[in-house]
DNA sequence: TCGGTATATGCCTTGACACGTATATAATCT
DNA sequence: AGATTATATACGTGTCAAGGCATATACCGA
């Protein structure tokens, strides 16, 4: 990933799973390894990517390292989603919407 | 992509750009090619992926093919995002933000 | 039917990522 | 200091996706 954006970071299912688990509170690596059934090195690598994206922070606790969720970067995705949200909320797909717009234009003439 | 989910489909920046353009209304392939500066075959392949994910539909119009946005699958991302939305919203008040910042200093990556 | 336009697909190369194994680093305890 | 636990990184590998180029397909006008 040359330009790592929040989108492709959470595009990885395992990383989404990690975030979901961290929503319940900080967890050490070993616990994540056990819960997601990924290898320890693999988990550490995913955590590295999440940390680089600002989605988690790490806090040393004795020999272990507690990972903590930092959800702010997800706001970027939320922002991108915003204009689409209205579209499916109206239960209209863009084609119908467009046709409606055309009708509206004709009526204005 | 073995298990193509909506997440990795919109993880691609060019595809997000295509969706953004289709929000304004249906467009033929050639126009998308011109607007996003991607090759014609490349654009067609991205459209193929979007179509397989149910994010666009196609409507033949003479020799051209009009692509239309179908935003419903994006609701999956929106749903995943929902529990996080409260989290970053709660961190908007000044006190918690300040405490977060202190934590961030201690955690230091 | 022929030529031109619009779009899709096949083939190939390249690069990036996820994963596993092994090893390094760090902290703790005796 | 040595042993043990917890986590990170290095290295090699297989896989898969994206891009470019060439070509196939489909539709249209003359």
Summed up:
By secondary structure, chain A is of the alpha+beta class.
Features of this protein?
DNA-binding, 3-stranded antiparallel sheet, 109 residues, alpha+beta, elongated, homodimer
Portion in helices of chain A = 55-70%
Looking across the biggest beta sheet of chain A, what order are the strands in?
1-3-2
The biggest sheet of chain A amounts to: 3 strands, antiparallel
Structural class of chain A: alpha+beta
- Total helices of chain A: the number is 6
**Number of strand segments of chain A:** 3
Oligomer: homodimer
* Gyration radius of chain A, rounded: 20 Å
Q: Taking all residues together, what is the mean pLDDT of chain A? A: 87
Estimate the global geometry of chain A from the Cα principal axes. Answer: elongated
What is the percentage of strand-forming residues of chain A? 5-15%
| Spatial separation of the terminal alpha carbons of chain A | 50 Å
Biggest chain pair interface:
A-B, 34 and 37 residues
Order of secondary-structure elements of chain A? HHEHHEEHH
Q: Residue ranges of chain A: pLDDT <50 for 5 or more in a row?
A: 105-109
